[in-house]
Amino acid sequence: MRLGDRLRENQQAASVQEEAAQHEAFTSQDSATPVDPINTLKQRVQQRLYARIGGRITDAAMGEGELQQLLLQELASSLDEEEVPLSPDERRRLVDEISRDVIGYGPIQAFLEDDSITEVMVLSDKAIYVERDGRLALTEARYLNQDHLRAVIERIVSAVGRRIDESSPTVDARLPDGSRVNAIIPPLAVDGPQLTIRKFSRKPLLVEDLVRLRTVTEPIAEFLEQCIDGRLNVLVTGGTGTGKTTLLNVLSSFIPAGDRVVTIEDAVELRMIQNHVIRLEARPPNIEGRGEVTIRDLVKNSLRMRPDRIVVGEVRGAEALDMLQAMNTGHEGSLSTLHANTPRDALSRLETMVLMAGFDLPVRAIREQVVGAVDLIVHLSRLRDGTRRLTHIVEVDGLEGDTITLSDLFTFDYAAGRDEEGNFLGEIVPTGIRPRFEERLEEYGHTLHPDLFGDPLEGISMKRTR
């Protein structure tokens, strides 16, 4: 048989199989999952309602009460036009759900109210994913269309004084509960508006919660509390979604109540429990391209505010130089986060960001600044089982030639293996190296427990790394 004949036969067989699969899926769906007439009615009414008042949803001149009244009037008219008999309970359900979808956050509202969900990701009007227990899941929820999603995005960003349009198609904002919001729209987002919300717990996580979640152990938590009270400069590092901000919140809770603290963020996320706290937030440029206030501007300004400690939500640019100088000039005990895959990568990124400040500094001078400023690197990782764990606690020792030397004080024990469900059994354990800043902690009244650093683990090098 010739090649062309075989190809035609294969195509015909594939077509028959595809038709059979489609028929089977249709018949099984028809018998197992009947269409909900209430949901069908809801979609029709919602589309008609959004077409009527969609443009007025984002009208800044219209108050919340006025908008709610308009919605109820139009909704009643839309339901009457359907001429579908509804019980009082069914009508109330429709009104509640449609009101939530039209003037709330739409179909993601239920996910934002679900405490088990940590992240919501909207792919235009095509799909909505959520993260639960560290794993992504596709939901059945969808926005009606891209205009519906765009209206929700504009409502979120306008509430915090931000804007998003074709001239400024990306924005970082926050919800009233502090949850982090990122939105990007066309022309940058080719397939339509994209919305990502990283939820914050309604109740801020405490150190006890991190111990319960196995992110840290009790001895490590006590050690970190001693380091913060002992005014060590700490850098929290890790990849995206590893829990850096959450850990930074917990570490900041260890700052003594008598210290004057200045926090600096792109969008306010930190929840400080101290009374003497000044919160600063960066500002993007206005529609004319003016009025921008960067993180670097705020770090410079904070030095004139007589802070005891400076907490930068995330170092991501030229402000790294000002942050290092602040740590080196009497602001010990400062904290910040930084995206990095490993503690060593964090120092490389820090050097690169210092060069972004525009000064032609020699590499050795930058590394001397880093060594003089950063005392401890606390590194988080999101493991393959979905959990977020503290995997490294590293001391910055000094310079050997032009190389910064580091000491792994604690590392994660991957050798412990996994359980039957694939969860890691290990935890962060000591390497046997005692920190050089031990005497400094003793000056603040902290004596490290003699068993804290234990015996070195097999297979872990006791040499200070370069």
Description:
By secondary structure, the chain is an alpha/beta fold. It has four domains: 1-34; 36-97; 104-202, Beta-Lactamase (2-Layer Sandwich), CATH 3.30.450; 207-443, 3-Layer(aba) Sandwich (Rossmann fold). It is built from 14 helices and 15 strands. It has helices at residues 3-32, 37-53, 64-82, 88-103, 109-112, 146-158, 207-212, 218-229, 244-252, 295-302, 319-327, 343-355, 363-373, 438-443; strands at 117-123, 127-132, 135-138, 170-174, 180-184, 194-198, 234-238, 261-265, 277-281, 309-312, 335-339, 376-382, 388-400, 403-412, 428-430. Strands 9-8-10-11-7-12-13-14-15 form a nine-stranded mixed β-sheet, with helices on both faces. A six-stranded antiparallel β-sheet has the order 3-2-1-6-5-4, covered by helices on one side. A hairpin with a 2-residue loop joins strand 13 and strand 14. The termini are far apart. Mean pLDDT is 81; it is low at 16-35 and 456-466.
Main sheet: which strands, in order across? Answer: 9-8-10-11-7-12-13-14-15
Radius of gyration (Å): 27 Å
Given the structure, what is the number of helices? 14
- Category by helix and strand content: alpha/beta
> Number of domains in the coordinates?
4
Query: CATH topology of the largest domain, what is it called?
Result: Rossmann fold
Oligomeric form of this entry? single chain
Q: Helicity range of the residues?
A: 25-40%
- The termini sit apart by 66 Å
Question: What is the strand content?
Answer: 15-25%
The CATH superfamily of the largest domain is identified as: P-loop containing nucleotide triphosphate hydrolases
* CATH top level label of the largest domain: Alpha Beta
CATH-defined architecture of the largest domain: 3-Layer(aba) Sandwich
Globally, the shape reads elongated
Give start-end ranges of low-pLDDT stretches. Answer: 16-35, 456-466
Mean model confidence by pLDDT: 81
| Count of strand segments | 15
